[in-house]
Amino acid sequence: MAATSAVRTVGRRSRRLFDIFVAEVPWTVSSKELKEYFSQFGPVQRCQLPFDKDTGFHRRYCWIKFSTLEDVKNVFQKDSHILEGAKV
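C-alpha cells predicted for SLIRP protein (88 residues):
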C-alpha cells in the first residue's frame, strides 16, 4: 500500500464511504480474503476487485470501502500489509 495508495470520500444517500485503493494484489487472493484481512481494521462495507473479461483473472488491484475515517486511519497505522507473502 505504498505510493499507489489513495483514499477518497464518496457521498451516497447521506452516507459517506471511505475508499482505499490497494495495488499489487496477488493473483491467488480473492475478494473474500481481502475483505477478511481488512476487517481487522474496521467493518468493510465493500470490496471491489475488478476482473479482466478476456483473461478471467482479476486486475491485481481493488478498492476497500470503509464507513468511517477512523477505520481508514487504522489501516494506514500499520507499516506494511502482506497477503500470501506479497506486500500490497
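The first strand starts at residue 7 and ends at 12.
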